[in-house]
């Protein structure tokens, strides 16, 4: 039997207002409330409302045959609580289904794994706590920001008592191996689920591209690719939830595609929808060594989109310098601001690479250039550094 795990990423970053040099030390209000409200409203109208309706209908029609998972950031939960409580209630109604699993992740989709092990673990624990409070769910599988993974991060996940972790099925770490099997972290045996990059990005990046040789993309073409895999295999699809309706507009047929996919898979005896935790109960086929970090971003599947130029490295160096003081402070507002400011989106805005990223809210770039993003961000960090007594 072929098993399909659908993982939908739900994330909204806290976008920064224009923060000038002369604001440093004078104004601690960093966030652009208008843009944050506008983006969430847009995503709700174009994507979330319609996608939730589709999922509820599928769960009602196939109560035992359909299952999926959310990777739901803490910042998305915060914004829905503040700006769109009715939307959050809609997600909570979905979460009430036992077939809907929630994965753990760093709270703000941060690059905590690049800053400090302690910070990374604190972000994951804060996210676990938030999930329990908002959705009454306790996650057992971890998904890091941008699917960043290495042997070391896998060891951290194991020590945090996770039952498995999702990583990118990058070709350069797999070699001749297939992404469609369960592997294990070499030292701890932590089960590793690997995203299928091609099938995931057929939906997230290429679905409405009329120049693509597989356009129009149909469920039949998707299942043909799955059927080409020999034996009992697993397909892990990890895409942004906003692919449904926002990144791929409704007129592209994306909702009809998912509705038809759910119908066909749920009705076939040789297929099954499963959750990541169900896949992690299997016996791994072998170890997978990942000595240097991989991610799901860009063609290179590395960290260069968020940590590849001098501006990004300088920003991360400042975050590392500040973390020791943040860890000691009892000022909850400073801790919250630091957590929001470590979100990966802020680093992606500084990227000078012009490849197409996997769609996410970062595509609504708020700056005219990566340099503008860097200057604005560093002004904010300078103010936070003063609040910590470092400058």
Mean pLDDT: 94
Unreliable stretches, pLDDT < 50, 5 or more residues?
A: 355-362
Spatial shape? globular
Strand segment count:
11
What's the order of the H and E elements? EHEHHEHHEHEHEEHHEEEHEHHHHHH
**Strand portion:** 5-15%
SS field, number of helical segments = 16
Structural class: alpha/beta
The helix fraction, in percent, is 40-55%
Tell me what the structure shows:
The chain is α/β, with parallel strands linked by helices and 391 residues long. Helices cover 45% and strands 12% of the residues. The protein contains 16 helices and eleven strands. It has helices at residues 33-61, 74-83, 85-95, 112-115, 117-135, 151-159, 171-174, 197-204, 219-227, 254-267, 276-279, 304-307, 310-328, 332-341, 344-348, 370-387; strands at residues 2-10, 68-72, 100-102, 141-143, 164-168, 183-184, 191-195, 234-240, 244-245, 248-249, 271-274. Strands 1, 2, 3, 8 and 11 form a five-stranded parallel β-sheet that branches. A four-stranded mixed β-sheet has the order 4-5-7-6. A two-stranded parallel sheet has the order 9-10. The longest helix has 29 residues, at 33-61.
Write the layout of secondary structure elements.
Blueprint: E1 2-10, H1 33-61, E2 68-72, H2 74-83, H3 85-95, E3 100-102, H4 112-115, H5 117-135, E4 141-143, H6 151-159, E5 164-168, H7 171-174, E6 183-184, E7 191-195, H8 197-204, H9 219-227, E8 234-240, E9 244-245, E10 248-249, H10 254-267, E11 271-274, H11 276-279, H12 304-307, H13 310-328, H14 332-341, H15 344-348, H16 370-387
Parallel strand pairs: 1-2, 1-8, 1-11, 2-3, 4-5, 5-7, 9-10
Antiparallel strand pairs: 6-7
Helix pairs in contact: 1-3, 1-10, 2-3, 13-16, 14-16
């Amino acid at each position: 039997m072929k098993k399909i795990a659908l993982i939908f990423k739900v994330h909204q970053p806290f976008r920064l207002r224009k923060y000038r040099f002369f604001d440093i030390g004078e104004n601690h209000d960093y966030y652009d409330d208008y843009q944050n409200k506008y983006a969430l409203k847009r995503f709700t109208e174009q994507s979330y409302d319609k996608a939730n309706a589709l999922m509820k209908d599928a769960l009602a029609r196939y109560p035992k045959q359909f299952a999926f998972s959310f990777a739901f950031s803490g910042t998305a939960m915060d914004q829905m609580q503040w700006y769109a409580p009715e939307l959050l209630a809609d997600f909570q109604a979905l979460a009430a289904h036992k077939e809907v699993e929630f994965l753990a992740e760093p709270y703000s989709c941060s690059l905590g794994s690049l800053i400090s092990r302690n910070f990374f673990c604190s972000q994951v624990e804060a996210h676990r706590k938030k999930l329990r409070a908002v959705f009454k769910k306790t996650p057992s599988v971890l998904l890091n920001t941008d699917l960043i993974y290495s042997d070391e991060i896998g060891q951290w996940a194991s020590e945090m008592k996770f039952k498995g972790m999702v990583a990118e099925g990058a070709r350069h770490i797999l070699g001749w191996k297939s992404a469609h099997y369960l592997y294990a972290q070499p030292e701890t045996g932590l089960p590793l689920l690997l995203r299928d990059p091609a099938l995931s990005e057929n939906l997230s990046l290429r679905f409405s591209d009329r120049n693509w040789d597989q356009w129009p993309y149909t469920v039949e073409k998707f299942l043909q690719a799955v059927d080409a895999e020999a034996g009992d295999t697993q397909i892990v699809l990890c895409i942004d939830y906003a692919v449904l309706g926002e990144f791929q507009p409704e007129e592209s047929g994306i909702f009809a595609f998912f509705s038809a996919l759910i119908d066909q898979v749920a009705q076939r005896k040789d297929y099954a929808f499963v959750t990541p935790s169900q896949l992690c109960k299997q016996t791994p086929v072998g170890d997978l060594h990942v000595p240097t970090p991989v991610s799901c971003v860009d063609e290179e599947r590395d960290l260069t989109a968020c940590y590849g130029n001098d501006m990004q490295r300088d920003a991360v160096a400042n975050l590392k310098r500040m973390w020791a003081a943040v860890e000691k402070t009892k000022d909850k507002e400073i801790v919250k601001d630091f957590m929001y400011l470590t979100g990966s989106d802020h680093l992606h805005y500084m990227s000078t690479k012009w490849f197409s990223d996997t769609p996410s809210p970062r595509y609504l770039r708020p700056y005219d250039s990566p340099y503008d993003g860097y200057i604005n961000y560093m002004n904010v960090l300078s103010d936070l550094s003063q609040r910590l007594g470092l400058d």
